[in-house]
Amino acid sequence: MTQQSPPSQGSQAVSLAKSVMRRQASLSLRVAAIFVALLAGLPLFNAWFPEVANRPFAGFTVSWFLLGISFFPITWLLSAYFVKASDRLEAEAAAQFAAIGLPAGAAPAPANEILADLAESEREVTE
To answer: What is the 3-state secondary structure (H, E, C) of the chain?
Structure first.
């Protein structure tokens, strides 16, 4: 059996960075999907349920109440959720980078720089 060497710090950093980017993209797409559904849902609500949409509510029709009054707080809530979830992802990423020995906030070098450093260190070992 051949024994595999543990992954280098550089390859772990690149892997972690890709994982963080995937998670951030997933969060962004989820929040955007909810926002688009709400945005597209109001005209559909008006078309499919006109009797409910035109009913008076708090001095407005339900349609105008949803659009003019409640849409902005919903948007703020989505934004607050996004910021809190992003902060949580960044804190988790910082902990993961610290676990492999990178200082918090340090961005991993691009893969080609890591490979060049590895090649250079191998040359120094053989000399």
So the answer is: CCCCCCCCHHHHHHHHHHHHHHHHHHHHHHHHHHHHHHHHHHHHHHHHCHHHHCCEECCEEHHHHHHHHHHHHHHHHHHHHHHHHHHHHHHHHHHHHHHCCCCCCCCCCCHHHHHHHHHHHHHHHHC
